[in-house]
Amino acid sequence: xxxxxxxxxxxxxxxxxxxxxxxxxxxxxxxxxVIGIAVNVGKTGLFSxxxxxxxxxxxxxxxxxxxxxxxxxxxxxxxxxAKKIDAKIIVRGLRAVTDFEYEFQMTGMNSRLDSSIETVxxxxxxxxQFISSRLVKEIFTFGGDxxxxxxxxxxxxxxxxxLNNK
Length: 166
Ligand code: PNS
Known about the structure:
The chain is α/β, with parallel strands linked by helices.
């Protein structure tokens, strides 16, 4: 029996409906998906690592995908973490042309570091393509409606955080 493990790495600050779309698509390609939340060295996010982990896990549970998806965090090189969990496939979502250069560079560097690991790009459905965590945060900061970009759980946590920071 095959047990193809995929690693979907990212900041997930916070997880968006675009990420969810990629997670669902990944499960058509891999048997098990590990969501690897990166400890972002030098990047202060909206949510702490623990909070990001909790939000991703609650979205996964609400989707009933916990049987196939694990949520983990990692520090250090992505390829080292992939090796550690025996993932031969790194999954990345590709949105627009603007993503390409960054992804192209990362894939090239990662494959030089470990040529046994393949990076696979998946495209979100057209109505989720444009969503990015950075813009979701910006829209939210200025009072815009982000309810169609994130889950109700993420929205609630963002509202709580806003109130606490007042
Ligand atoms: O969601 P993001 O912020 O675009 O994800 C970027 C991420 C976490 C995949 C990338 O920063 C990463 O792989 N970090 C781990 C450190 C590493 O391996 N860096 C070298 C990449 S070539």
